[in-house]
Design goal:
Number of domains: 2
Low-confidence stretches: 1-6
Largest sheet: 6 strands, antiparallel
Distance between the termini: 70 Å
Strand order of the largest sheet: 3-12-4-7-8-9
Structural class: mainly beta
Order of helices and strands: HHEEEEEEEEEEEE
Radius of gyration: 22 Å
Number of strands: 12
Helix content: 10-25%
């Protein structure tokens, strides 16, 4: 009966503007303010929630984080967690780069030449932040040295 009097658009407007309290297992949408289930990736208003899922660090590395990558030596075995990502036009988020265990081959002024299961990679450790030319956002990679 209320639907016929107000119409669908008006009911949606009332629904979205209702004050709501945060419940356990929910998160707030920054666009409409609605609380939705924490497992949802998209709100009813169209906002997409993103979560950068990084690989789980093996226990043997937990207490061996490297604070200055320039202190590494060729021949060190490290565990790398890459924080670089790219966002496309639909605002989908993609992690870029390799994560895992690597052998340090060479240290340069701009980064590390590493060898792993997928071959050689060069991990850039400078020029952090958004790169206008490529659209990639470079985050500070986390490095753990094998004891």
């Amino acid at each position: 009966m209320l639907e016929a009097a107000l119409g669908d658009e008006a009911l949606l407007q009332i629904f979205y503007n209702l004050p709501s309290k945060r419940k356990r297992g929910s998160k707030e949408c920054p666009i409409c303010g609605l609380y939705v289930a924490a497992s949802l990736k998209k709100c009813k208003c169209g906002h997409q929630f993103f979560l950068l899922q990084t690989p789980k660090l093996p226990k043997k590395y937990k207490k061996w984080q490297v604070t200055d990558w320039k202190n590494l030596n060729a021949g060190d075995i490290i565990y790398l967690i890459n924080q670089d990502y790219w966002v496309n036009s639909e605002e989908d988020l993609f992690l870029i780069g390799k994560n895992g265990e690597f052998l340090v081959k060479r240290i340069t002024d701009e980064g590390l030449l590493l060898f792993g299961n997928s071959g050689f990679i060069f991990q850039t450790m400078t020029n952090l932040g958004y790169q206008e030319k490529t659209g990639i956002t470079r985050g500070q990679s986390k490095i753990y040295r094998k004891p």
